[in-house]
Amino acid sequence: MTLFDPAAHARSPRHARIYAAYEIAHTVVDFAAALLFLIGSILFFWPAWETPAVWCFVIGSLCFAMKPTIKLLRELSYLRAGKIEELAAQEQA
């Protein structure tokens, strides 16, 4: 098993569930970042709203930083799931 194997999600039903859960999290974070950047951009039209606009950009940037973190956590979950399945197979043998 290696990290970032494109076929990892198809190894087992457990891997497929892991993929689905992390894909949902990744998509939610992606939408949140896009929405925050859109709101921040609109708020910059009014000088009185510049501070909230800046905060939207900061929080949106944090969301973008979370995306690779989510992918790495998914890959580590795949590795953990694979080890559990290997142990289960050894116990059955």
From TrEMBL:
Residues 21-75 form the YrhK domain. Pfam families: YrhK (PF14145). The chain crosses the membrane at residues 21-46, 52-70. Keywords: Membrane, Transmembrane, Transmembrane helix. This is YrhK domain-containing protein. It comes from Paralimibaculum aggregatum.
